[in-house]
Amino acid sequence: MYFLSNTIFKAMVLALLTTFTPLTAGHVTAQTVVSNQVIYDVVKRTGKGAKGIQAFYASTNYKAIWIGQKNKARRNALLAALKSSGDQGLPTARYKINTLETALNASRNGTNVGATELLATKTYLQYAHDLTSGAVNPRKIDKEIAIDRPRRSDQNLLQAFTKSAPSGFLKSLAPKTKEYQLLLAEKKKLERDMGAAGAAIAIPSRTLKKGSSGDSVVLLRQRLTKLGYGKLGNAPKFDDALKTVVAKFQKANGLSADGVAGPSTIGRLNQGPKQKLIKVLVNLERERWMNFPRGKRNIFVNQPAYTVYMIDNGRVSFQTRAVIGTRASDRRTPEFYDEMTHMVVNPTWHVPRSITGKEYLPIIRKDPGFLKRRNMVMVSASGKSVNPENVDMSEYTAKNFPYSIKQRPSAGNALGLVKFMFPNKFNIYLHDTPSKSLFNRDTRAFSHGCVRIQKPFEFAYKLLEKQTSNPKAAFAAWLKTGKEQYVNLADPVPVYLTYRTVYFGDAKKPTFYADIYGRDKKVFKALSKAGVSLRAVQS
Questions:
Q1: Is 320 part of any domain?
Q2: Which residues contact 2 (CB under 8 A, 6 or more apart)?
Q3: 115 vs 110, 164, 290, 484, CA distance in Å?
Q4: I need a surface site. Which of 123, 172, 333, 381 has the fewest CB within 10 A?
Q5: Residue that finishes a domain, picked among 137, 155, 174
């Protein structure tokens, strides 16, 4: 590519300046003439981190896309999008809108043309990436959030923008999922609620049930009325009608629908608009992290909801309660995406080393017959079974214990009768469990990290329905053998282990879930640092 020397170039500009009249529609200014050379000079100094910008401008012969009269629509569209970025829950402060607008106005007079062009480009890219991929990097927030955001290249975003109608293209960058749109609507509602005068009085944290009476019952009625559960009046007595409404609220919020307003129910009812808005902002960000095609069929595990969903063509076709990892730092269920490839019927449980040394070794020392009673065997490095009674366990610690432990297939196996595999570095999977009673609890964080499901057989039938005419019969035949059976899925299914503390699913109203692992707090802290702020809008 050939460029004139600066001396000759400036002489030509001066000559042009004496020829052309002041800027009016259809006229050329000094800015228009020098922009290509100036942009070239600025872009070539952007460094290795701006290869996409360099490639884009090189492909256009360093033509301005923001500066100049003909680019007015792009400038205006960008500034409008930036000023309304808070509507999307984005970090408006990050974009330094006033600085950009001042620079763009000054560039009309030929001031800092190249620097302003580059500033507008970088600001556009920041906004575009924030909206399409999320404003913060999940991997830098918490090691348990092991997900990679979708990310379009800078060159792609610039080329697509310049070939499209500016305003329409900028609007198209936002995730198009129904969940994202519903979260945006909920955000507006909560901002209005925050702006309304008067805060709701908290319901005292005590259990309210049929037969209870007093001011707390009155507050309970008022709160449910405000939430749209009918006109419940101000009677101080907890009667059958109120019990029915409480159960309805509990069912809508993923709680055990027993009609008793205990700590979990009262906690959900006491969540004010500010606390809910924070959750919505965090979950808008999570939706941006998943701004990619998720497959016609996928498995969506929502940890705070303790629920596993099968999604077919965007709709829930099956769901079941789940138990996830405890709150202990080494047992929490991580967030990641993978692909389910097979199931194992009558599985053998190969006990993880973390459990073998820390939990089972102390038990075996005291009770060598413990393993046998549980249909478990201790195995040496060579693969031979070893009787614990013939080993001096006092020689070993959790770090140097040389044996592995496995549990043979049986109804009492810790994995139950079937496990669903999506091989991953965390050794996390979905499985059955003999501990069925845990599914009746509201809070179901009891596992070592894997996800236990309440309806494993039904889940298996659903997975197999596309590859066999009689899933129940096929599964029953494998189960009847009593031996470990590997069953490959004809079509692997994407699995998303997510953490949605606000979730609509197929419902019209959102459910707000407890932040069981404290991840919302970390994500919101990162968003706040980036420039996201809470807004209260007057009704």
A1: no
A2: none
A3: 11, 24, 34, 67
A4: 381
A5: 174
Q: Which residues of 112-144 are buried (b: 16+ CB within 10 A; e: fewer)?
A: bbbebbbbbbebbbbbbbbbbbbbbebeebbeb
User: Does 198 share its domain with 148?
Assistant: no
pLDDT attached to residue 124: 98
Identify whether residues 52 and 165 lie together within a single domain: yes
pLDDT digits (tens, 9 = 90+) for 16-45: 333 333 333 333 344 444 468 888 999 989
Q: pLDDT tens digits, residue range 453-462?
A: 999 999 999 9
Residue 243 is part of which domain span? Answer: 182-275+520-530
Supply the pLDDT for residue 47: 84
pLDDT tens readout for residues 406-427: 999 999 999 999 999 999 999 9
Give the separation between CA 240 and CA 284, rounded to whole angstroms.
38
Q: Is 342 a catalytic residue?
A: no
Q: What angle do CA 212, 267, 201 make, to 5 degrees?
A: 75
* Distance (Å, whole) CA 374 – CA 73: 73
The one-letter code for the residue type at 363 is: I
Tell me the three state secondary structure of residue 259: coil
* Gap between the Cα atoms of 335 and 144, Å rounded: 6
37: in domain: yes
pLDDT, residue 35, reads: 61
| Residue 207 placed within a domain | yes
- 58 C-beta neighbours (distance < 10 Å), count: 14
Which among 129, 342, 350, 450 is annotated as catalytic?
450
State pLDDT tens for residues 44-86.
898 888 999 999 999 999 999 999 999 999 999 999 999 999 9
Residues 169 and 122 placed together within one structural domain of the fold = yes
Same domain, 197 and 163: no
Please report whether residue 475 resides in a domain. Answer: no
Q: Which of 27, 342, 350, 431 is catalytic?
A: 431
Secondary structure (DSSP) of 111-134: TTHHHHHHHHHHHHHHHHHHHHH-
104 lies in the same domain as 188: no
Q: Measured between alpha carbons, how far is 148 from 300 in angstroms, rounded to an integer? A: 17
| 18 and 140 part of one domain | yes
450 belongs to the catalytic site: yes
pTM: 0.86
pLDDT at 6 over 60: no
Q: What is the mean pLDDT of residues 223-236?
A: 92
Q: Are residues 229 and 368 in the same domain?
A: no
C-alpha angle 212-213-218 in degrees, rounded to nearest 5: 120
Based on the domain organization, do 66 and 114 belong to the same domain?
A: yes
CB 361 within 8 A of CB 516: no
- pLDDT over 60 (residue 12): no
